[in-house]
Amino acid sequence: MDLPVTDAPSPPRGAPLEGPVIRLVQFPPVWGRNVSPFTLKLETWLRLAGIPFEAAHSMKLHKAPKGKLPYIVDNGVKVADSSLVIEHLKRTRGIDPDAALGPHERAAALALQRLFEDHLYFILAWSRWIDPAGWEAVSEGFFDGVPAMLRGPLRPLMRRQVRRMLWLQGIARYSPEEILELAREDLEAAACHLGDKPFFMGEQLTTIDAVVYGFLANIIFVPVETDLKRLALGYPNLVAFCETMEQGLYGDSC
Ligand SMILES: N[C@@H](CCC(=O)N[C@@H](CS)C(=O)NCC(=O)O)C(=O)O
């Protein structure tokens, strides 16, 4: 399916690339998918902007400038944080899928981005690492590539770290029912904003579509059977949006 992507220079497959190729450093796939919402956001943005890149898989957070993934290596220079990378690429490549947005649209996009990245993100993490239904899948899938002898000690250690992070952030202080209600409010707001438009800002793909897809695909398309996933599947327009993004930008590769 053809999506209304930015008209950017993207060489045909196999053609020599002009200038340095961006290296996108992200986690290794799990269940054949990019399971980190922030790295999926950035990969999706690169695809919608038509900027060539090569993906490198790593778990070495100590090599990441901010201790988190994703980051890119652009001409030998590391740039971290999905949003800062996008700003860097808009500036250096002269490609801006958001150029046509007015101030009200930018304000709405920012509010939605914060909803996903600074609120729903923690609910997603809770549903994967703390909710027993999520942990059942994650404790297997996420540790698949870890050497067998490390898997035993690493599982409880990492779960404890995430639990502590979610307690300090605050979401783990709510009951499962309260967390689900907070998720419902977020998804309802996103579904209301999307309405019957093809993309979040209308007919054209913009950065917020990459953000939303990065998070929702990681709820809807992964084999982690939680109440959060069931809730998200109850919003037909959000599901249809994710399917359009997936088919249009990833084709058969997902
Ligand atoms: N604001 C950052 C957030 C990145 C982030 O939270 N990455 C997570 C994976 S989705 C991570 O690296 N977590 C590892 C850790 O915190 O130790 C961005 O937009 O890139």
Compact description:
The chain is an alpha+beta fold and 254 residues long.
Layout of secondary structure:
Blueprint: E1 22-26, H1 37-49, E2 53-57, E3 71-74, E4 77-80, H2 82-93, H3 103-129, H4 132-141, H5 148-169, H6 176-194, H7 207-220, H8 227-233, H9 236-250
Parallel strand pairs: 1-2
Antiparallel strand pairs: 1-3, 3-4
Helix pairs in contact: 1-2, 1-7, 3-4, 3-5, 3-6, 3-7, 6-8, 7-9
The structure holds glutathione (GSH).
Q: What is the CATH class designation of the largest domain?
A: Mainly Alpha
CATH topology of the largest domain: Glutathione S-transferase Yfyf (Class Pi), Chain A, domain 2
SSE run? EHEEEHHHHHHHH
The percentage of residues in β strands lies in 5-15%
Per CATH, the architecture of the largest domain is Up-down Bundle
The stretches of 5 or more residues where confidence is low (pLDDT under 50) are 7-17
Average pLDDT over all residues: 93
Helical content band: 40-55%
Strand order of the largest sheet: 2-1-3-4
In total, how many domains does the architecture comprise?
2
Largest sheet: 4 strands, mixed
Q: What separation lies between the terminal Cα atoms? A: 15 Å
Number of helices: 9
Number of DSSP E strands:
4
Bound molecules: glutathione
Radius of gyration: 18 Å
Structural shape: globular
Q: What structural class is derived from the secondary structure elements?
A: alpha+beta
